[in-house]
Design goal:
Order of helices and strands: EEHEEEEEEHHEEHEEEEEEEEEEEH
Structural class: alpha+beta
Helix content: 40-55%
Radius of gyration: 61 Å
Number of helices: 5
Strand content: 25-35%
């Protein structure tokens, strides 16, 4: 494509890209084009005015743009709130007690001095519990003393029981051996001997009766005498038969009943003695351990009661909450500078109402020293630096902006993609400004006095490489030049590399024109 261009510097024009009064630029352009259809030329003043009023006016066929240094200023607006530097939260963190019913409370917005009473809670139930617990502690102490005295007594009693059981077993074993070795056989022998003697006497009485009867047949005794002697002897025989039968019964009973019973009884007695000793040994060990464990349990329970008593005593001090510092009372707590639950807390904090443990009831703030807190997007994290100047505009109508600087930026996010920025003020704050008010902070994220700015439509994307380029216009030809872009504002793009001041670029895509 062969085209001829003539450029002459003709005018100095005012250009503003950010609506700030200090932004000025020098831009000159006069274009004469020799085209086959003899189209009209555009005066430099008309071209410049068109671009200043509407950046899109540059975008048209047959237009070029001269690259000249111009200032650029990019600002970020951060919404936030005013926060007191000195604020003391008043919260409830009881150790044991859980019921906190308000009896008296200062009003929201009250000015207080350090040590003044803020809230007084009803304490009757707590005091009653403390009194009951103190009685319980005295009783548990006496029980422990009694248990400590009883353990040695139990120990001696168990030792005596063990000694008695050991002696009883020793005697049972001795009786068992005596019975097995001597008494059992003696009982059997005695039964045999008793049976034999009964049989012997019976036979004796019978033989004597028989001899008397023979003798009386040959003698001269009278019948009366004979009858007396024979009757007496016959009675002896009858008595012998009776005792013999009785001895047989006793013998059979001894061998069939008494001896087996004695065998069983002596065995069971020995076994009972052994079990008695086992029980005594177990009792000596287990019962004594039980007594000791019960004592330890009593001590642990008393320790718990003592700890509970200590916690209740600590909670007793929470029945009256005092101001930790001088300032203004705000109900609830501030989150990111906002008192989001203020209306809810004002309804909740009244005499007769209960407050939740662990919650912040109120905050005492010092309104004399404030800072501004805001959330910044992570994309601005590098653009905003500490000690950077900031202008904060309160939301209050008619208020003047306040000068400040970035005091700190949180090292880690406080929400998804958000960081906390704190802004300290370098100017005097008005008396009407209080914590919780909102505002907007304006901070310069980028500023350069001699930036090379070109219209957005002059920069094209290389579909093949993914890079960016412009069409550089010279007297002889138009060339594709790879550029690196920077910041953008008002449809202008900063050229960081690839162009120099005074270069002329085409506002058209020359490749498409050729097509």
């Amino acid at each position: 494509m062969n085209r001829a261009f003539t450029f002459t510097v003709a005018v100095v024009a005012f250009v503003s890209f950010s609506s700030d009064p200090w932004l000025y630029a020098k831009e000159t352009l006069q274009t004469e084009a020799a085209i086959e259809n003899n189209s009209e030329s555009v005066s430099p003043s008309e071209a410049n005015n068109t671009r200043d009023e509407d950046p899109d006016a540059d975008e048209g066929s047959g237009k070029t743009f001269e690259v000249l240094p111009k200032p650029i200023r990019i600002e970020a607006t951060l919404e936030g709130a005013f926060v007191a530097k000195k604020a003391k939260e008043v919260s409830l963190h009881p150790e044991q007690w859980s019921t906190f019913k308000i009896e008296e409370v200062v009003a929201h917005g009250t000015k207080v001095q350090k040590g003044e009473t803020l809230v007084r809670f009803e304490s009757k139930d707590l005091l009653d519990d403390l009194a009951d617990l103190e009685i319980e502690l005295h009783l548990s102490e006496q029980k422990i003393v009694r248990s400590e005295q009883e353990i040695p007594q139990k120990e001696r009693a168990l030792e005596r029981q063990l000694a008695d059981a050991e002696e009883f077993l020793r005697r049972s074993e001795e009786d068992y051996r005596t019975y097995k070795e001597t008494e059992r056989e003696q009982s059997i022998d005695s039964a045999n001997m008793s049976l034999k003697m009964s049989k012997f006497y019976l036979d004796y009485y019978r033989d004597e009766l028989e001899q008397l009867e023979k003798m009386y047949e040959a003698d001269d005794l009278t019948e009366e005498t004979e009858e007396i002697v024979l009757r007496r002897q016959r009675f002896m025989v009858e008595q012998g038969e009776f005792y013999y039968e009785l001895s047989k019964y006793s013998y059979n009973k001894m061998l069939g009943v008494i001896i087996p019973r004695r065998d069983r009884d002596i065995e069971e007695s020995l076994e009972d003695s052994k079990q008695r000793l086992d029980r005594a040994q177990t009792a000596n060990q287990v019962n004594l351990n039980i007594a000791r464990y019960e004592l330890e349990e009593q001590k642990r329970e008393r320790k718990k009661s003592v700890e509970k008593h200590v916690r209740l005593l600590a909670d007793k001090s929470l029945m009256t909450l005092k101001a930790p510092a001088a300032g203004i009372v705000f109900y609830g707590e501030s989150v990111d500078g906002k008192w989001s639950k203020l209306a809810e807390m004002r309804k909740k904090i009244h005499p007769g109402k209960s407050v939740d443990k662990g919650s912040v009831i109120m905050t005492v703030v010092d309104p004399s020293s404030l800072y501004f807190v805001s959330k910044i997007d992570e994309k601005l994290l590098i653009s905003i630096q500490q000690k950077q100047s900031v202008e904060v505009q309160p939301t209050v109508e008619g208020s003047e902006p306040l000068d400040g600087m970035v005091a700190s930026i949180s090292a880690i996010p406080i929400a998804d993609g958000k960081f906390e920025a704190r802004i300290a003020f370098t100017s005097q704050l008005p008396d009407w400004l209080v914590p919780g008010m909102s505002g907007k902070a304006t901070v310069v994220t980028y500023q350069k006095e001699d930036a090379l700015l070109v219209p957005e439509n002059a920069v094209h994307e290389d579909e093949r490489t993914g890079g960016e380029f412009v069409w550089l216009v010279s007297d002889e030809d138009v060339q594709k030049v790879v550029v690196k872009t920077g910041k953008k504002k008002n449809k202008r793009v900063e050229i960081i590399s690839g162009l120099t001041a005074g270069d002329i670029i085409s506002l058209e895509d020359e490749e498409k024109q050729q097509e």
